[in-house]
Amino acid sequence: MNKQTTTKQWIALLAMGLGVFMGLLDVTVVNVALPTMARGFNTTFTNLQWVLNAYTLVYAVTLMIMSKLGDMYGRKKIFLGSLILFVIASAINGMAPSLFVLDIGRGVQAIGGSGMMSLSMALVASNFSGKQRGLALGILGSIIGVSSASGPLIGGYLVEHFGWPAIFYVNVPFGIIATILTVIYVQETPSYGKNHKIDLIGMMLSAIGLFAIIYGLIVKESHPHWNWFKPEVSGLLIGGVIIMIIFVLVEMRVEDPMMDIQMFKRPHFLGTITVAFALGAGIYAYNAFLTALMQNYIGYSAVQTGVRQLTISGWSLVLGPVAGILSARYSKKWMIVISLLVGGGGFFLMAKSISPTVSFVELWPGMVLMGIANGMVNPLLNTAGMEGALPNEMGMVSGLLNVFRQFGTTVGVVGLGLIQDAQYETYLNGHLHTISSLPAHALDGIKEALVNAGPFSGHTIAFSTRMAKAPFAQDLQRIVIHAYDNGMAAVAVTSGIIVVVGAIGAAALMQNHFSSQDLNK
């Protein structure tokens, strides 16, 4: 009987793992398909931004709502409904006749993805116990780590061989398998909110507040030279913060709140969300810049980039189960701290390796250390977060860990992008005028074009066929590459600092042991 029960549990984990993998993969997999989509829809990259933003925004905004619904009505029910919704939306996206339909479909798909992601950890925690729980959460952490980093590889392969609709169609068969396995093998959790009222005001406020903040950051990312005080940016950010403050005040007074604000009084919980934010703002945000470096400047294809980035994501497969086993014997807190410090060392190695002739040979040692940190911290964070939560809070804790991880990624991409832009522009301003063969009347125009294009696209201008014919081409190309390198080194150092700060937060706030008094404070 014990053997049968254990087998059912691992099949249940497979079902939840499939859901999580699909939900997180679709955050990044679309990036490599954008050029093909642009040709297919006969549109520009700017118009395609909402294919990315619709998923990112709706995913982040609905994480807490889906978590609460799972806690109230049963996590399996909401997980299963989210999975079915995700599969249907994926099929619609693959068949989308227009960009508008695809944008809407991506938003609907994100609701399903957030439901699967926010409830997966809580379902694993309730379907496993004892040492098996740590191992299962470790495996789930592996899946989270791999799915977040494998988008370029999987997306590149599918687009290259089957076209862009394949990145959505592939979810359908795997989603159907996951649905069947979930129905049969995943055990339902108690409905902790049967007699509670749905906190509609809290749900609306949290959704609007998060939407405003994250959309404000996206607007700033799209317009790096806009001032933070420009109404289109500051209005959204300030408005979002005000709404979130109102949300907190409302939740403190509502009889059946969407979220128990008392959770934020627990140092351990604050420590776990600090680590989740550092993972997003440091490791996951940096992946976008690393991908641009490997594709735009080194010249690897999407598939070649994805294969090399297995140096990071591959560690999640290996270390997730190991971390789960070790978490039953050793301090999760100090394992997280040490792993984050290792990751910080990886970023500093990356910063040192950046040069005009950089290749994968120079990058891989730092990437390995980043991968080890990600592979260890994700599963340990899941286990530590669930240990510090009451049974009726597990869905919300799982959702909040994912909210802070996703919010950290968004903040990181914007913040690191601004740092890279500033270093890139400063270097151009300080060196372009030294090109003796560059006519004075052309200097301002070329500088403006390079600055407006930004670090990601400046390389395309400098190495264009038209520019290559100019007598100053080689000098210009050399300066553009050095400017980009300056920005990338600053991005790597900043990411390393973020991860180290996360380690300090974990050391100061997280606990090793819990009592009922700790959780009820």
From TrEMBL:
Subcellular compartments: Cell membrane
One Pfam assignment: MFS_1
Topological relation to the membrane, as annotated: Multi-pass membrane protein
Membrane spanning stretches: 12-36, 48-66, 78-102, 108-128, 135-154, 166-186, 198-218, 233-250, 270-289, 309-327, 334-351, 363-381, 488-510
Major facilitator superfamily (MFS) profile domain location: 12-514
Major location (coarse): membrane
A single GO molecular function term of this UniProt record: transmembrane transporter activity
InterPro entries named among the record's database cross-references: EmrB-like (IPR004638), MFS (IPR011701), MFS_dom (IPR020846), MFS_trans_sf (IPR036259)
Keywords noted in UniProt: Cell membrane, Membrane, Transmembrane, Transmembrane helix, Transport
Cellular component terms per the entry's GO annotation: plasma membrane
Superkingdom of origin organism: Bacteria
Family to which the UniProt record says this protein belongs: Belongs to the major facilitator superfamily. EmrB family.
Record protein name field: Drug resistance transporter, EmrB QacA subfamily protein
